[in-house]
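4.2 Preliminary Data

To establish feasibility before requesting continued support, the project team ran the inverse folding procedure on a target of 364 residues. The structure was first converted into the token representation described in Section 3, and no sequence information of any kind was made available to the design step. The complete token record follows.
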């Protein structure tokens, strides 16, 4: 039988592996979700109140440029609001950057275990992704620079990185940028910047404000507003102009704009969230350091635990699930078959996870 005549996707689209989100428990179950790096303290109460206020005005279109949100970000971070673009999550902005600066015949460079969305958006734009090996699960600046060719148009860098939790120091990020041609766009994805405690880390803000080929991308998803889908980007005028030309005219809804603005200004809640994460990230890392488990040092709101074998990782996933904890398997998405990614949750959740995994370590 002949194939039916019907619309067909552009070449290469059906070859793209879809994004695999973290698993959730069954509806109504008592499982604790530690698979998606969500806030263990919920959202800012001020953000919740602002979202409810916005929800009372659902009949009106939102202001198209997200002005109230851009102005809040500008005030708190010391940024010109005109250099900010907001999006329906940071994924929205990453897609727009790929669509704008990549095309057929181009290449984008990323580290091997970088965010799994980068290959999707690169290939969707018709370009090729170039995967660069890492050094002990950390991006290697020299290797990234060595992978650049005349076809390179974008370098994707998640800092800190997901799913490893590792990061590049400010000096290393600057060294990476200095080694790139001026026509190559460096995208510094700081999705987890709010949780970093390392003294030698810097967000990509200064680079984005002082160079013509750097943008910094951030998100509110890790700050308790994952369901609201809010992202933001800072870049030079010519990039901001290009992205604004193709983004959706009302791409951030009104309740989200208002919630994001309130969350930005609620510095007390954000500091509380950071302190909780640092305490229990460091505690869990120390507790799980054992003969058959290795915790990769993390600067994010999760830890990546490596086991001796893929079979041990699978057994650990099952044991945690049986105990009511859903964590992230990272073999299918990232090729780290012997690893699990565990979000930092409540004190009770962290103690429960440690008890399960330490019990396994002692019996195997």
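Position-by-position output of the design step:
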């Amino acid at each position: 039988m002949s194939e039916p005549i019907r619309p067909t996707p552009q070449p290469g689209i059906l070859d793209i592996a879809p994004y695999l989100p973290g698993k959730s428990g069954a509806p109504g179950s008592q499982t604790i979700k530690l698979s998606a790096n969500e806030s263990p303290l919920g959202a800012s109460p001020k953000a919740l109140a602002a979202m409810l206020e916005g929800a009372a005005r659902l009949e009106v279109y939102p202001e198209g440029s997200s002005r109230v949100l851009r102005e809040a970000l500008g005030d708190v971070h010391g940024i010109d609001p005109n250099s900010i673009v907001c999006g329906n999550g940071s994924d929205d902005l990453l897609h727009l950057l790929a669509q704008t600066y990549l095309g057929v015949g181009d290449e984008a460079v990323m580290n091997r275990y970088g965010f799994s969305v980068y290959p999707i958006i690169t290939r969707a734009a018709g370009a090729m992704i170039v995967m660069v090996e890492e050094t002990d699960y950390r991006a290697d600046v020299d290797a990234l620079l060595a992978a650049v060719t005349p076809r390179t148009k974008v370098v994707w860098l998640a800092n800190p990185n997901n799913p490893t939790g590792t990061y590049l120091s400010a000096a290393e990020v600057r060294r990476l940028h200095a080694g790139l041609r001026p026509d190559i766009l460096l995208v510094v994805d700081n999705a987890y910047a709010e949780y970093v405690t390392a003294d030698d880390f810097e967000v990509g803000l200064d680079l984005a404000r002082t160079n013509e080929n750097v943008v910094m991308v951030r998100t509110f998803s890790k700050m308790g507003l994952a369901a609201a889908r809010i992202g933001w980007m800072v870049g030079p005028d010519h990039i901001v102009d290009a992205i604004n030309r193709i983004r959706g005219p009302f791409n951030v809804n009104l309740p989200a704009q208002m919630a994001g603005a309130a969350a930005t200004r609620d510095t007390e809640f954000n500091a509380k969230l950071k302190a909780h994460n640092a305490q229990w990230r460091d505690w869990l890392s120390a507790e799980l350091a054992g003969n058959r488990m290795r915790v990769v040092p993390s600067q994010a709101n999760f830890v990546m635990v490596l086991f001796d074998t893929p079979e041990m990782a699978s057994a650990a996933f099952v044991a945690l699930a049986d105990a009511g904890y859903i964590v992230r398997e990272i073999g299918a998405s990232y090729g780290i078959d012997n690893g699990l990614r565990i979000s930092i949750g409540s004190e009770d959740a962290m103690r429960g996870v440690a008890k399960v995994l330490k019990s396994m370590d002692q019996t195997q």
